């Protein structure tokens, strides 16, 4: 399982390897109580959820102290894998469904992830500003941008200027055009060779 992560991120510390390894049993345990990962693809957890989340780390390296908001985090994707990858970055994982946040908190506690603040809240109710906002296919992009655009601070706290990093699949031409903003599409298949990623992308825009 962990070999799929180390294949693309060979320089993980021992601590990071332990944390990534711990995720399988933690999610299996929580998922048996609160279904946050589809049961039919749970055995693909490392491919479809953990590695998929880490595509963002191939596009942008966050610097220490950066503030990142995960909107509609569900069971903690992409923020839980990213928090392990970037232990000096501050993450807020937000979801309006309380039981999903219960899972995120439980997984973080079990894996010793201390740089995530998991909140059961609607994104409109979050008062802070952030350097980056990440998410995984929560809603149509024009709606998403309306929710969060005023929560991003201008500047650069990583290898890309501050902005949105969004995991999405398929043909996004019309949806992105509807925002009237400039987007860059990164094909995840350029980073990861597995067939699952063929149509998957990270889309980015700067503030």
Run of helices and strands? HHHEHEHEEHEHEE
The CA-CA distance between the termini, in Å, is: 36 Å
Report the top-level CATH class: Alpha Beta
Nearest-angstrom radius of gyration? 16 Å
What structural category arises from helix and sheet content?
A: alpha/beta
Number of structural units classed as domains: 1
Structure overview:
- By secondary structure, the chain is α/β, with parallel strands linked by helices.
- It has one domain (2-206): 3-Layer(aba) Sandwich (Rossmann fold).
- It is built from seven helices and seven strands, in the order αααβαβαββαβαββ.
- Strands 3-2-1-4-5-7-6 form a seven-stranded mixed β-sheet, with helices on one face.
- β4, α6 (141-148) and β5 form a beta-alpha-beta unit.
- α2 packs antiparallel against α5.
- The longest helix is centred in the first third of the chain and has 20 residues, at 14-33.
- It is globular and about 45 Å long.
- It starts with a helix and ends with a strand.
- The mean pLDDT is 95.
């Amino acid at each position: 399982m962990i070999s799929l992560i180390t294949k693309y991120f060979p320089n993980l510390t021992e601590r990071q390897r332990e944390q990534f390894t711990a995720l399988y049993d933690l999610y299996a345990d929580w998922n048996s109580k609160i279904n946050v990962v589809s049961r039919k693809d749970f055995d693909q957890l490392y491919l479809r959820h953990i590695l998929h989340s880490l595509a963002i780390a191939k596009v942008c390296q966050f610097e220490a102290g950066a503030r990142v908001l995960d909107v509609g985090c569900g069971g903690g994707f992409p923020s839980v894998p990213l928090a392990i990858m970037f232990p000096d970055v501050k993450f807020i994982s937000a979801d309006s469904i309380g039981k999903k946040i219960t899972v995120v908190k439980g997984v973080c506690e079990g894996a010793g992830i201390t740089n995530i603040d998991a909140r059961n809240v609607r994104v409109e109710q979050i008062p802070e500003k952030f350097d980056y906002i990440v998410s995984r296919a929560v809603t149509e992009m024009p709606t998403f941008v309306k929710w969060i655009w005023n929560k991003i601070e201008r500047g650069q706290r990583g290898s890309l200027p501050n902005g949105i990093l969004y995991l999405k699949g398929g043909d996004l031409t019309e949806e992105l055009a509807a925002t009237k903003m400039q987007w860059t599409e990164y094909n995840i298949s350029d980073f990861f060779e597995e067939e699952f990623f063929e149509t998957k992308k990270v889309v980015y825009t700067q503030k």
